[in-house]
Specification:
2 copies of one chain form a homodimer. In chain A, about 50% of the residues lie in helices and about 20% in strands. Chain A is an alpha+beta fold. In chain A, about 30% of the residues are buried. Chain A binds a DNA duplex through helix 9.
Amino acid sequence: MQTEAKQLLLDFIHQMIPNMQVSSESLRLIADKFEVHNLSRHEFLLKEGKISGYYYLAEGFLRAFTFDSEGNEITTGFYGSGHVVFEASSFFLHRPSTESIQAIHDCKGFYTNFEQLNGLFHNVPAFREFGRAVLVKEFVRYKEQTLAMINKSAEARYADFMESNREIFQYAQLKHIASFLGITDTSLSRIRRDFAKK
Amino acid sequence: MQTEAKQLLLDFIHQMIPNMQVSSESLRLIADKFEVHNLSRHEFLLKEGKISGYYYLAEGFLRAFTFDSEGNEITTGFYGSGHVVFEASSFFLHRPSTESIQAIHDCKGFYTNFEQLNGLFHNVPAFREFGRAVLVKEFVRYKEQTLAMINKSAEARYADFMESNREIFQYAQLKHIASFLGITDTSLSRIRRDFAKK
DNA sequence: GAAGCAACTTGCCATTTGACAAGAAAAGAA
DNA sequence: TTCTTTTCTTGTCAAATGGCAAGTTGCTTC
């Protein structure tokens, strides 16, 4: 069902492994193991304490967050269309997640779990390559994000965020962007005031 | 040369993919692509601006660091024996590293680069699985480390670090541990004073 | 061993940052 | 639409944190 909608997923797979031929039989096997999963704004893809699945986000925006030692909600990531979204520790170790992931805009995508994904790795060689490419992409992305927290000032991180995430910036709340940048909403407000002056 | 020394590497590979049979021919291929690489204390495995390789640390201790926007050195990771050490962004994207990696104790290990590793992935199927396992392990490790920075207080992170890294704690300088924990050496000193009181 | 250097601790002070609160603006519900 | 709730901004204030400097300890090197 909804196989035509899954074309988005198959296109994405092809795009992640451009050098590999994938038979239509393999594509069918892959599409079968993902199910259409849409979210409306504020709905959760993953709740703290649950075990993360593997979600290809075809359309919409998501936000991951956790809590600091004083109980403040801290945003750990934003995701736009074209990303595979999962919480690595929870997904690979089958452990309860300390992060939650929530839609900040209506989302369309395709969902699967560890077992199904492992089955595909086993049965569809080209899909292993896809899995590896996703892993590399997300690891690199996460390292760059965390290193920027060290290397750049809050002002610079804010400027970069606005610049390279124009779309997400439209939908995310400022308080969520603030905690993502490692500051409070108060401080972000002051940074924005100073930016506006120039 | 030094093939007998490389047994440590081969043992490690076997341990990372316990369910797979690897022919002795394959093992030879793998061992050939790694070269023995030892470091004395204070020597660099990777310098900022260079492109990261792939290093299996058989013995010794390493420290990764970068600089914040005010020029302070910030330690981003410690590594003990049994770890594969590389800077993900630099290694996978062939880009100059923003981190440096330095020995904090004499090290023995085995080194290779992206091209050699890719060749192995191509020629030795079981090694692909090893590469994937390493990637998962390091990604999970890094996520847990960065989430702990949010979820736990500096005191708790210090207690955890002492508890689960007794060996590294022996060799690492307190100022390096301090920046790893996200605080200054001054603050760590005060935390230690308070810990000692109880 | 002695001298020199680096690491660690501690006190004092300045500054940044966040907490809190009040008001304005925007978004959502009825 | 109007009412209600949430978000955002801005001010004041308090507190945590870091910078700096001095003193001590412990390594290293000659």
